[in-house]
Amino acid sequence: MYLGTNLTYQHSVQEEIRSKLKSGKACCHSMQNVLSSSLLSKNEKSKVYRTITLLVLCGCETWLLALREESGLRVLENMVVRRIFGPKRDEVTGEWRKLHNEELNDLYSSPNNVRVIKSRRMRWAGRVAHMGERRGVYRILVGKPEGERQLGRPKCRWEDNIKMDINELGCGGVDWIDLGQDRDRWRIFVNAVLNLRFT
Questions:
Q1: Which stretch of DSSP H or E encloses residue 89?
Q2: How far apart, in whole angstroms, are the C-alpha atoms of residue 178 and residue 121?
Q3: Residue 51 is inside which H or E element, if any?
């Protein structure tokens, strides 16, 4: 543990993400009476949840998200948003039921956690790309380590996530470092990632 971040010998952030999700769930559980209270408006409850989200997503610019982590983030968010908006009465049967994920997306107007992480990561990538070769962060990110790679499938890198985010915008094959030099154009990419609707 260093400055609130879990460091591992394998340089994996999965343990860090799991720890943040666990803390977020514990915080939401302790606030469940507030989040389901009829005395507060849905807007006020959403603000409480966004405050919790700030704690969970602290340092997310460096996260390498796999499908498992994305799923965990969506489960946490859907759990809280369901508590905020409560159940819905079925118009046909008259019975109460949980809101479907699509209904939650329509009710909760703020960008979901996965989109926020992707946009923050893109924003940080643009800053690193603009730093130039003299900065240590830039050299670490784009440098090629010496030695031979271990046998087996290469591990997904942070840079690979940036390339996947750009692919989702329909701009595959673009060199993100060159693109990051143009701040105005890169800002458009960051906003597009934030507003992109992921399924």
A1: strand 88-89
A2: 16
A3: helix 42-56
How far does Cα 25 stand from its chain's mean position? 16
Are the CB atoms for 87 and 97 separated by under 8 Å? yes
Among 146, 155, 79, 64, smallest CA distance to 112 is for 79
For residue 144, the 8-state DSSP code is -
Distance between CA 50 and CA 44 in Å, rounded?
10
List the one residue out of 113, 103, 110 whose CA is nearest residue 73. 113
Spatial separation of the C-alpha atoms in residues 118 and 88, rounded to whole Å:
31
Sort 24 into a burial class: Cβ within 10 Å, 0-12 / 13-18 / 19+.
buried
Choose among 62, 76, 50, 59: nearest CA to 4: 59
Report the DSSP beta bridge partners of residue 89.
96
Distance of alpha carbon 73 from alpha carbon 120, whole angstroms: 15
Backbone φ, ψ for residue 66 (5° rounding): -100, 170
pLDDT tens sequence across 69-125: 888 888 888 888 888 888 888 777 878 888 888 888 788 877 788 888 989 988 988
